[in-house]
Amino acid sequence: DGGITQSPKYLFRKEGQNVTLSCEQNLNHDAMYWYRQDPGQGLRLIYYSQIVNDFQKGDIAEGYSVSREKKESFPLTVTSAQKNPTAFYLCASGDTQETQYFGPGTRLLVL
Amino acid sequence: QKEVEQDPGPLSVPEGAIVSLNCTYSNSAFQYFMWYRQYSRKGPELLMYTYSSGNKEDGRFTAQVDKSSKYISLFIRDSQPSDSATYLCAMSISGGYQKVTFGIGTKLQVIP
Questions:
Q1: Do residue A42 and residue B8 have CB atoms under 8 angstroms apart?
Q2: What is the pLDDT of residues A38-51, one digit of tens each?
Q3: Tell me, what DSSP letter sits at residue A40?
Q4: What CA–CA distance (Å, rounded) separates B92 from A49?
Q5: Gyration radius (Cα) of chain A, Å
Q6: What is the pLDDT of residue A98?
Q7: Distance between CA atoms of B19 and B43, rounded to whole angstroms?
Q8: Separation CA B11–CA A78 (nearest Å)
């Protein structure tokens, strides 16, 4: 089956800890994106990547880091510098600008 | 003022009703317009996308764009309880990579 997978579904972070969210796609899409979704707010772009080994900051990149070593994979690390990490994180991929397809999401909670 | 405004609802309608969901925007450069459906605790699913002005129909769903009024709509005919979800509008400027701007979503409940 083609699609986007995210893991884990739920993730708990202790204070001062870095955690990594996984995103994999088998749609052969060049572009991949990470968004954060909070109640009462629209999706906010954290990072995006148009090609392997290249990525750009979005609107709220502070406290986050990414890598794009393979076309299929775009992991997101939430670092200890991100002071308010509790949110629903969504990964997306796309072949053209107007069509982004989303994964099922990872809910990050702080212990 | 936000670039994209969307009433968060909730909007409750009886089964079989025609539903109208709307967004307004301020950036006249937006050319691509999308609607996503998001069930609770799931990722958004692309429903419709349109380029520039006009209508697009897909089954029970019709997307409408009025660029002169900076207003987009999604109509759902013969609404079903399975349509109960949050509907996000999204838009972007054409050409190269452009950021997609999302509305906050309208929560729809279709009552059997």
A1: no
A2: 988 889 999 999 88
A3: T
A4: 17
A5: 13
A6: 58
A7: 22
A8: 35
Residues of B in contact with A49 (CB under 8 A): none
Q: In what order do the strands lie in the sheet with B71-76?
A: B4-5, B19-25, B71-76, B61-66, B54-58
Are A102 and B92 a contacting pair at CB < 8 A? no
Q: How far is A103 from chain B (nearest CA, A)?
A: 6
Q: For A25-41, how does the pLDDT look when each residue is reduced to its tens digit (9 = 90+)? A: 999 998 999 999 998 88
**Chain A: closest CA distance from residue B24 (Å):** 14
Across the interface, do A42 and B98 touch by the CB < 8 Å criterion? no
Nearest CA in chain A to B43: A104
pLDDT one-digit tens code per residue, B23-58: 999 999 999 899 999 999 999 999 998 888 889 999
